[in-house]
Design brief:
The complex is a heterodimer of chains A (415) and B (231). With 415 residues, chain A is an alpha+beta fold. Chain A folds into two domains: 3-53 and 270-411, no CATH class; 94-232, no CATH class. Chain A has helices at residues 3-12, 16-55, 97-104, 140-146, 149-152, 158-163, 172-178, 208-213, 219-226, 245-256, 263-266, 268-306, 308-316, 321-355, 376-403, 406-411, and strands at 58-66, 70-72, 81-83, 88-92, 110-125, 130-138, 153-156, 167-171, 185-190, 193-203, 214-218, 234-239, 258-262, 358-361, 367-369. In chain A, the strands form three sheets. Chain A has a six-stranded mixed β-barrel, surrounded by four helices. Chain A has a two-stranded antiparallel sheet with strand order 2-3. Chain A has a two-stranded antiparallel sheet with strand order 14-15. Chain B has a six-stranded mixed β-sheet with strand order 6-7-8-3-9-10, with helices on both faces. Chain B has a four-stranded antiparallel β-sheet with strand order 2-1-4-5, with helices on one face. Chain B is α/β, with parallel strands linked by helices and 231 residues long. Chain B contains seven helices and ten strands. In chain B, α4 (126-139) crosses α5 (155-167) and α5 (155-167) packs parallel to α6 (185-201). Classes of the chains: A alpha+beta (415), B alpha/beta (231). The A-B interface holds A 3, 6-7, 10-11, 13-14, 309-310, 312-321, 323, 405-408, 410-411, 413 and B 21, 55-56, 59, 62, 64-65, 84-85, 88-89, 91-93, 95, 97, 99, 101, 103-105, 107-108, 112, 116-117, 119-121, 165, 169, 177.
């Protein structure tokens, strides 16, 4: 063991209570940082999983058309010009989804493509009540590639939906409001038509706005009901790496000349809320680490003041200024090391305990317990924050100790 | 920059040392051109009234302080104008200190205190360091108290540990500032005898500052000081 570490270990015992205070703050700071990051990123992650599993990573829905930039009369430079800002307008819907899907499949990051036909303001009528909903026509096999519909089924069977042209998939909220169960029949009224369908299965995404209004029909049946034999309302795309959705959306928009919305763009409001929440909790919890730094600063400064004679004797024995500085930094480092390890253990234990807490959330996603994320980065960032704060706070006392002149101390004139 | 001392027997030499202490109007010219040399195996006593500059001279000779003017040679090497790192290394290798108030590190055992300069110098293995520290503590009569903390030793015992520690790296020079000033007559005599016997056995130059006329009279050389000069 290096003599500096040996001395640092002994000096640590000189201020046991103060050191324990610093240690406690580090443990709490690191532990709570991990817990808050695990919980906030847990909900954020679950929200992202929900939206990716419901609406996919990308949505292509409107054809882009460049707008007129300028009009000239009497030739260019004649002085009779009307200049407009360069721009583009979007024409709703996709006329030839087949061509677009073929092109989309050539993108390396694309893992699945599904065309969707949407009809709004459709009246659904059960024996219990009527409601206004949206009908979504899908090709089931394609839709299963771009969503988690399979795992979102809470009752009934997708096989019944696939094999029965009159089968429909209802959101859980919708089925509850209309008091419909699997096997029940209901009517859809739109464009002067009334057609009867059967509930093949009920799904639940957890997103209330979807589960209340979205009803899936097989594509051919939807085209017939909505009287739209060709085209699609939008194309839903899933990606191997959803984090690249923003960049892929930009490329696709350039190549396809269609508006392409990434999940980050579609859900930016919620994502910003989650981001702000994570940052604010991190800042709040970092106060503990800051207090740990201040406590360490205070403790080390007290040790420097109390150990001036020891510093003088060490200097007289050949210990350099750097040795003295290191002795104090080692003290901080030892407490920091113990504190961060204990903090990580505390963080992991509390995160596990929190993950067992029952908590029912419906609205933007569905969960029955607290959601946490286990990420090594939470531990790395928590430890890094503690290292930066505590070591920065320890530098001043360490440098002060190193600057002490042994002659001044022995003479009794050290400042 | 260094130069050789004229006599290889001289462990320590200074010439024309000036040093002022204090700030502004309170600044006092403590040393006024002191010159001195100490030979190996000899014991020197610097005596004089309080405030005459004895301790200030000792700290300058021990490279714990910097002179305003003048030169200091340690083992023939000019050290007065060197950087802090070189002076620190020279302290560790060539100089042993004994102070009036012992200055033991009280959280450490007697053995640890004696081993501390050796650990820094790093010339010996851990086992050799411990063996030497035990031998030194035996020499000062504390062989049975090696594992006692500083707080568990009497004043006389602490000073004996401090002597053992000063001898740990076999320095060429032992500087002692009132080594018996805080001890009773019996312990004073014991500590002085130890210091001089061990230093002479090892051929070390001992320079001690003392107010004790009995101790001073038992040294090989007695150098009285007054108003910052040897008289």
């Amino acid at each position: 063991m290096s003599p500096n570490i040996r001395i640092a270990l002994r000096f640590l015992t000189a201020k046991k209570r103060s050191m324990l205070m610093s240690l406690s703050c580090i443990v709490l700071g690191v532990g709570l940082f991990i817990v808050t990051q695990a919980t906030t990123s847990g909900f954020q992650g679950y929200f992202i999983k929900t939206i990716l599993g419901t609406d996919g990573a990308l949505r292509i829905q409107d054809r882009a058309q460049s707008t007129m930039q300028s009009i000239t009369a009497g030739g260019y430079g004649s002085g009779f010009e009307i200049e407009n800002r360069a721009g583009r307008k979007y024409i709703e819907g996709i006329d030839y989804p087949g061509q677009l899907i073929q092109t989309l499949r050539t993108f390396r990051n694309v893992s699945g493509v599904s065309e969707v036909l949407r009809g709004s303001n459709v009246t659904i009528s059960s024996s219990f009540k009527d409601d206004i909903i949206q009908v979504y026509g899908i090709n089931l096999a394609d839709q299963l590639q771009v969503s988690d519909l399979q795992s979102q089924i809470v009752s009934g069977s997708l096989i019944d939906f696939r094999t029965d042209p009159g089968g429909a998939l209802l959101g859980g909220e919708m089925a509850e409001r209309l008091q419909l169960r699997v096997g029940d029949t209901f009517q859809l009224l739109t464009s002067g038509q009334i057609r009867r369908y059967k509930v093949a299965a009920i799904y639940e995404t957890g997103v209330e706005d979807i589960d209340r209004v979205r009803l899936y029909l097989n594509m051919e049946e939807a085209r017939s009901l909505l009287r739209r034999p060709t085209g699609a309302s939008y194309i839903q795309v899933s990606l191997y790496d959803p984090d690249r959705a923003d960049r892929d959306a930009g490329w696709m928009q350039e190549v396809l000349k269609y508006s392409v919305a990434s999940w980050q763009h579609r859900e930016q409001t919620w994502l910003q809320v989650f981001g702000a929440l994570r940052i604010s909790t991190a800042i709040t919890v970092s106060v503990f680490t800051l207090i740990a730094g201040l406590a360490m600063f205070n403790t080390l400064l007290m040790i420097v003041l109390e150990k001036t004679k020891d510093i003088a004797i060490l200097r007289s024995m050949g210990y350099t200024r750097r040795d003295i500085s290191r002795i104090f930094l080692w003290q901080a480092g030892i407490v920091l090391g113990i504190g961060t390890i204990a903090g990580c253990v505390l963080g992991a234990l509390v995160t596990f305990a929190v993950s067992q807490v029952p908590l029912e959330i419906r609205g933007i996603f569905a969960t029955n317990k607290f959601i946490v994320t286990w990420s090594p980065w939470h531990y790395v960032v928590a430890v890094a924050t503690a290292i930066v704060m505590v070591m920065a706070a320890s530098l001043i006392p360490a440098r002060r100790a190193a600057r002490l002149e042994p002659g001044d101390i022995i003479r009794g004139t050290a400042q | 920059m260094s130069s050789s001392a004229p006599d290889s027997e001289i462990a320590l030499r200074c010439a024309g040392l000036h040093r002022s202490l204090g700030q502004g109007e309170g600044r006092v010219h403590v040393l006024r051109g002191v010159s001195f040399e100490a030979r190996r195996g000899q014991v020197y006593a610097i005596v004089g009234p309080s405030g005459c500059g004895k301790s200030t001279l000792l700290y300058l000779l021990g490279l714990l302080d910097l002179p305003d003017q003048g030169e200091i040679w340690i083992n023939g090497r000019l050290m007065s104008n060197t950087q802090d790192a070189e002076r620190t290394a020279a302290r560790g290798e060539h100089i042993g200190f004994v102070f009036q108030f012992h200055f033991l590190m009280l959280e450490f055992t007697a053995l640890d205190n004696v081993m501390m300069p050796m650990r820094k110098l790093g010339r010996l293995s851990a086992a050799e360091m411990e063996a030497r520290a035990r031998h030194l503590l035996e020499s000062v009569g504390l062989g049975n108290k090696t594992h006692r903390l500083g707080t568990q030793l009497s004043g006389g015992e602490q000073q004996r540990v401090a002597i053992a520690r000063a001898l740990a790296n076999q320095p060429a020079i032992i500087l002692a500032d009132e080594p018996t000033g805080n001890l009773d007559v019996r312990n004073s005599s014991l500590v002085f005898d130890l210091l001089t016997r061990l230093a002479k056995e090892n051929g070390q130059a001992v320079v001690l500052v003392t107010h004790n006329p009995d101790i001073a009279s038992r040294c090989d050389f007695r150098r009285p000081m007054q108003d910052g000069l040897f008289v």
